[in-house]
């Protein structure tokens, strides 16, 4: 990644957020999609003097209760924290979070093993409430007089010739002509589809053959968590997987990942008996902890997961894409929101680096960023295998311990891959390359050790036989 662009993303703090002296920018920018990335970008641009219209297809989420069945909490890590620092909201968000210092791995026999996320208290994740964070960003964006929020506006079409966005609303179609626009409308982005129409574009999408369902693990009668609160919990099985994030009220949001089809799948597990049997077979320790299992199962939908890569992200001086709209990733590295927030930082930085040339700014943003989120897509797929299978393997656990031990000895020179992804803002591609180099060193050291041991045995045998 262009070091300059990353510097600002990483070096920002609350001092960058206030906008009292930000010079007004000419024209209005339209942001399509008021999810996490769209709301954060609206706020960041408003703080820098931009007049922003945010268009969101749903009604104002602040006027309804929590959305049942969607992932209601997310793991916030370093990249997301840097972005929240950029808009001056990091501490406010952390005050509402539950800190997770590591993973608790639950074996099929009910035993547990704790794996710290890093070498010290600075290397932790924060479990945050998705809805609360979204509401907070919208509240702060709305405080800026030059921001207008338009809920119930679904982008239907873009006329690139006349630079017109067409929305469907309950009151009929609405057309607008912003000076420029950003598509932040998620994995199934209409903005991406419309902007790429008639352009030499690449688009790659993969569906995971596994879906997910969310369940809540309630606290006990005293409001205490029934499992360790300050950790992410994983029940890894090669055929299915539970992951849980803690909530402030002592509950945990459990996400069950299960194949869509085949034996023990969402297709074949339907009746109360089948559901109870599935949990009993793979997660016996959870049976007693989930008294409301059947009722929750029937109420909560099955979600599907996709990963996408696409190009281009920038369209002249007029449009760009951010977040899931240009790189949806499987959630197994916990980086979707974090990387979407990092996009916003890099875009803001690119605009500041090219104040008089928006085309150059949007191009620089894509050049700095896309190669790295492509790597993140691959890493997130690999982590699916790690979470299901490897975390149980003694070799994997030993390797993790060795990584952390080497990191303690050489904190700057030796960084485990997970540390680089979750606890630094090192570009994803650089992190992967560095991890491969470290792997090669370890493999060479292991080979040298094996040769040494073999040599010593041969020498001892020779001496003995002589
Ligand atoms: C099970 C699960 C667990 C996850 N856990 C984590 C985690 O721990 N950490 C992490 O960092 N990430 C996690 N993620 C990923 C994270 O949720 C996403 O990467 C993040 O929400 C992307 O933000 P976004 O703003 O780009 O897209 P979204 O949050 O999807 O927002 C897009 C918005 O655009 C709106 N929209 C869509 N179409 C239109 C249209 N035509 N017109 C107008 N508006 C439109 C939508 O209503 C929505 O509000 C997880 C995802 C899943 C599924």
Ordered list of secondary-structure elements with their pairings:
Blueprint: H1 3-11, E1 28-32, H2 36-47, E2 51-55, E3 73-76, H3 78-86, H4 90-94, E4 98-100, E5 102-106, E6 112-116, E7 125-129, H5 130-142, E8 147-150, E9 154-159, E10 164-169, E11 172-176, E12 180-183, H6 190-196, E13 202-217, E14 232-236, E15 241-246, E16 252-259, H7 272-282, H8 284-287, H9 293-299, E17 303-311, E18 314-315, E19 319-321, H10 324-327, H11 336-353, H12 358-388, H13 394-409, H14 417-423, H15 428-465
Parallel strand pairs: 1-2, 1-12, 2-8, 5-14, 12-19
Antiparallel strand pairs: 3-7, 4-7, 5-6, 9-10, 10-11, 13-16, 13-17, 14-15, 15-16, 18-19
Helix pairs in contact: 1-11, 2-5, 2-11, 3-11, 11-12, 12-15
The structure holds flavin-adenine dinucleotide.
